[in-house]
Amino acid sequence: MPWNVFILGYDELGRQLLPRLQHVEDYAFHGLLSLDEAVHTEDYDVDALLSEATAKLDRFPGTVDAVCSYWDFPTSGLAPLIRRHFGLRGPSLEAVLKCEHKYWSRVEQSRVVGDCIPAFQALDPFGDDPVGQVELPYPFWIKPVKAHSSQLGFRVDSPSVLERVIPEIRENIGRLADPFDRVVAHADVPSDIAAITGHQCIIEEIISAGRQFTLEGYVQDGQVHVYGVVDTIRDPRRRSVLCRYSYPSRLPRRVQHRMIEATTRLMTRIGYDDAPFNIEFYYDGRKDRIHLLEVNSRLSRSHAAVFLLVDGAPHFQVMVDVALGLKPRMPRRKGRYAVAAKHMMRVFSDGVVRRVPSEDRIRQVEERFPGTLVELNVEPGTRLSELLHQDSYSYELGVVFIGAHNDNELRHRIRACEAMLPFEIEPVVRTESRGLS
After folding, report:
1. How far apart are CA 302 and CA 238, in angstroms?
2. Would the pTM count as exceeding 0.90?
3. What residue spans define the domains of the chain?
4. Nearest to 372 by CA among 21, 16, 19, 23
5. What is the model's pLDDT at position 239?
6. CA–CA separation, 353 and 340 (whole Å)
7. Contacts of 164 (CB under 8 A, 6+ apart)
8. pLDDT tens for residues 85-133?
9. Under CATH, to which class is 339-427 assigned?
């Protein structure tokens, strides 16, 4: 009988890629909470979601063998609570929060990899004088204690910029802060960390010098493993804006090993076990320094198809096998291509979408470049400023997962895809503009 694996926020990408796992006959995949409930909503009722998920699993007629998620919060916070309820493998809630709570994570990082992290402090945006709380020199980066996709993240170059962004943070921080605080309430949290709630922010010294990389790994039986390194390519004109992820990395092996050593110290320190993770670093080649950006208690959904194109299976293979207590059966370099990327199609001004690439156009792209997947985030009538999960500087219209036999061919294919996938956006004049850095 196959193992029953439940996927929080099971989406179309998961339905396309999970059947591509090695030994797929060993698994039966089931959705747990809809995508609209767990991901694409303005309001996360954590207690209701937890109750609904556990009730569904209680009613399931077979065995519940694993609960997995490849999304960020709130599913990253719900997963350990659900696993705890059913006695399933996975990291403790406290270990997950030491990744997800940005301030707590920095505190833990400072104890074992302090030479890799920037100066940081907490800041209460609801305080009487947020500017007066600042102890770090300008410029710095501000972001909520719980956020993802760079939401409400701003580069702050002066007190006047901080004064300008604080009202936006106050207005919107509660969307994730309220449910995050509900999850934290289920954990055993030190008093000094408990004082820094989801409604507060962290400010950090800017560490954007150099290039950014993500290590995809897992911990099993207390042993830390890294199985892939992905390059993060940013817009050279707007350093805060992500262009694409590229795999495999071009980072020298000696530097990868330094990152892996730091990762091993950190994941061991926080007691994270029996689950995948990804951890982001910068490498400054001029100073030969690595800086730890952040750690996530899940693998990156954004990397799944690029692993398939290069290695021969999406790295969902690792997520599922580790959740079941199996040694991951992830192939290596068995895919169709030598290199692959996830490319983001972005614009930087608000507007209303009037036309998106047709299904025929998408099919032409996927047929011209075998293995390519296209995902659209918008449809006709979408107001870009109303999109969820966007960074503070741009709007993501869609993504292309694509492979090639070398880097030069990959760049040519990406340009061809953008030409074949036109969008029509009607500009909208806003009273305030999205900042650029």
Report:
1. 21
2. yes
3. 119-205, 339-427
4. 16
5. 58
6. 29
7. none
8. 999 999 999 999 999 999 999 999 999 999 999 999 999 999 999 999 9
9. alpha beta
